[in-house]
Amino acid sequence: MGPSGIGFRGSAFTQVTYPAANTAETRFQFDMDDVEIVGPVSGTSTSHSIIFGLIAIGDSGYKAALEEARRSGADDIVNMRVDATYFNFLGLYSKVDLIVHGTGIRWK
Asked: pTM of the predicted model, to two decimals?
């Protein structure tokens, strides 16, 4: 589903990106002496399906994308936003990507 619950999926071909979540407001406070800014980080998790979902594999979950983003050396991610990208071709091949973007921090 897209923004406001509107789904933009074509029956023959789809290639769209939706905002899946926006957590730009960090909900806790910490002293900047406690953290080191790693910088911008992102991570992607992916699932695939073929033949109208007859076979589906992958992990396009939030946890998998977050783990990939942390591989850049970040302990945590703040000011995060999440996008979902959908690709479909005639139902024969479909792909879903969940992309986490944010600022990586490392605790001192």
From this structure: 0.78
Dihedrals phi, psi of 86, to nearest 5 degrees: -115, 135
Residue 6 pLDDT? 43
Token look-up 């979950």 returns 61
* Residue 4 pLDDT grade (very low, low, confident, very high; cuts 50, 70, 90): very low
44: number of Cβ within 10 Å: 16
User: In whole angstroms, what is the distance from residue 60 CA to residue 28 CA?
Assistant: 27
Question: How many Cβ atoms from other residues are within 10 Å of residue 66's Cβ?
Answer: 20
Domains parsed from the chain with CATH numbers = 37-108 (3.30.110)
Average confidence (pLDDT) over 71-82: 91
Who contacts 61 (Cβ-Cβ below 8 Å, separation ≥6)?
45, 98
Distance CA 96, CA 14 (A): 11
